[in-house]
Amino acid sequence: MSTPGWIEEIARRYLADEASVFLVHGEVEEPKWEVEGQRVDAAKALVLFLRRSREVVAVLHPGPPPARLEFAEFTDRQKFENLVRAADMIHGTALAANEADPFQALGRIWRALTTIGTPQAYIVADTQRLLPFAKKHIDSVLGAPDLFTWPTHPTLRQSNNLIVFLASSVDAVRAELVEGACVIPTTFGARAAPTWVDEEELAAAAEQEVEELGEEPAPPPAPAPPPIAPPSLPPAAAASDERPEDLRAEIERALVHALCEMPEETRPALVPVMQAVHAVLAVHRPDRFGLAVFSVDEEGRAVVEGEGADAFTDAWKGDIALSAAGGMVLKELKGGFSEARPPQLDGTGVGALVRRVRRIIERA
User: Fold this and answer.
1) Does 253 map to a domain?
2) Closest by alpha carbon to 259, among 332, 182, 180, 342?
3) CA 142 to CA 137: how far, in whole Å?
4) If phi over 0 gives left and psi between -120 and 50 gives alpha, with beta otherwise, what is residue 83?
5) Cα separation, 167 vs 180, whole angstroms
């Protein structure tokens, strides 16, 4: 079964760089969501989805006391502890926090979020218990900025990490969270069950209506003519003639070139996207990205070789959204294209690639 619509919307908005903190409300506690063949509640559905792209995934259960910080895998917990220790060393002092207190657990989460290089995702269940609407005073988060500033805080917005709060209703949680987070209902993308109509009954009803009106119904309108195909685009200008700020055009052209040049069997490993991204990075940051050659091994896994292989691999793996955006670009790709007649690329996926590549280019 496909991923629930509300989870796909989280992924879409995250890739579009619209938000890093989300508030999902609705049927979050009942095991009604099917992911990877399992029928689970919203928190577990997110864990199953996010662990595909995150090295650390955890769920904070605020209560009933004591609070619990549960990780998707034991290795996630180990990586989390390593991140917290690394942050403690940077701050020069250890954070004396007890995860049995939900706000102190959030303090440890914030410490981990201040590190870079490890993609993380945290889910806060039962948010109406943690941040109830009627409670006037909310505890501060130990060693962290005000919780309601997290949705716009640069530490989160400029990272590869995200936080999802789960609540039964937006009316049950503090308004500050509702105003700051990206709010998504669990009904997002839900489709109503089809209504089946008996064709004989429909025909009989139509005949009865004709008899009552005393005239034949007007014939249905003629189908609209097919849209006229736009003229073929002229070949793109040489890279030297292109405006340097037109990053999207560069990436689109590099994608089309890579897709036409590389065998179709390299697409599942996103190799054409990797080659296209490297081609653009090599132009803008030749000081960091040298020559690299892309291929797949016998098992279909991406292989990067050359003097620029390590730098590119570090950049690619350091931003998990690159591969997610690449998957979006290739998902609906259809054959029968060439550089003279380029394919229709997914706009959202290309846009996400542009934003991520720009960040790498601007990084010192």
Assistant:
1) yes
2) 342
3) 15
4) alpha
5) 15
SS3 139: coil
- Are 46 and 160 within one domain? yes
Q: Is 143 left (phi over 0), alpha (psi -120 to 50) or beta?
A: left
Number of independent structural domains in the chain? 2
Domain end marker among 185, 200, 221: 185
The token pair that represents 314 in the structure block = 């570090």
Express each pLDDT in 76-127 by its tens digit: 999 999 999 999 998 888 888 999 999 999 999 999 999 988 999 999 999 9
Residue position matching structure tokens 């689109």: 252
Closest of 162, 142, 143, 140 to residue 90, by C-alpha: 143
Domain interval for residue 112: 5-185
The structure's pTM equals 0.60
Question: Which spans in 92-151 are helix H?
Answer: 102-113, 127-130
